Amino acid sequence: MRSFDEIFELAANRKGGSEALEDLISKPKSSETLAKLGDDRWLAGMTRSVFQAGFNWKVIEKKWPGFEEAFEGFDPGRWSLMSDEDLDRLVKDTRIVRNAVKILSVRDNAIFLTDLAREHGSAAKCLGNWPSDDYTGLLEFLKKRGGRLGGATAQYFLRQIGKDSFVLSKDVVTALIREGVLEKTPGSKSSMRAVQDAFNTWSRESGRSLTEISQTLAMSVES
């Protein structure tokens, strides 16, 4: 595979130069900042990504203030005790998308977060301080212990909340195949490990975050 500098140059040539590319690339939040987020914001972020999955994101964006109201600010302690009455009320609440299975994921993820808080002092400390060089381990952790947080849902959740992350979008996968990291869209633990190893190599070479590398890969592909 090529060095990150070579991939950056490829992307820069397609985006009008290095300065223009830098303006398009975002950086993740620091571990310290993420560790200080309230666990309610982690639950809100999980919920947003779960409801976005397979749905029009613009609809979720427009309705989001209603989600915040309906779920009363997403306190994990409150929603870990979601009752049948809560569920009955929420599936009739026009402020949100009334999908019962996804509504129940709020309870499941609230339980997950309250468990992490007991184990680590706060869920934010556990998730915010998770090392970038084991990002695929974090994805597995979310899939195993969270509710409906597998696949791309977890990746977009982590990107949106500001965690250092890569998102295996169509363009990123195309770039990884081009660089010889993958043969096809990853679906096995070994293929995800190959992706992590490649990102770790590029990060060591460049000092860049996973987020920056992921975005650069995406922009190195002809659209």
Give descriptors for this structure.
67% helix, mainly alpha, 14 helices, 223 residues
SSE diagram, text form:
Elements: H1 4-15, H2 18-24, H3 31-35, H4 39-52, H5 57-70, H6 76-79, H7 84-90, H8 100-120, H9 123-128, H10 135-145, H11 151-161, H12 170-178, H13 189-206, H14 210-219
How would you characterize the overall build of this protein?
The chain has 223 residues and is an all-alpha fold. Helices cover 67% and strands 0% of the residues. It contains 14 helices and no strands. Helix 1 (4-15) crosses helix 2, helix 1 (4-15) crosses helix 14 (210-219) and helix 4 runs antiparallel to helix 8. The longest helix has 21 residues, at 100-120. It is elongated. The model has no long low-confidence stretch (mean pLDDT 97).
Summarize the structure.
This protein is an all-alpha fold and 223 residues long.
Instruction: Let me know the average pLDDT.
Output: 97
- Helix share of residues? 55-70%
Order of helices and strands: HHHHHHHHHHHHHH
Query: What amount of the residues lies in strands?
Result: under 5%
Major sheet attributes: none
Structural class: mainly alpha
Count of discrete alpha- or pi-helical segments spanning 4 or more residues: 14
Oligomer: single chain
How far apart the termini lie comes to 21 Å
Name the overall outline. elongated
How big is the Rg? 19 Å
In total, how many beta strands? 0
Uncertain segments are: none
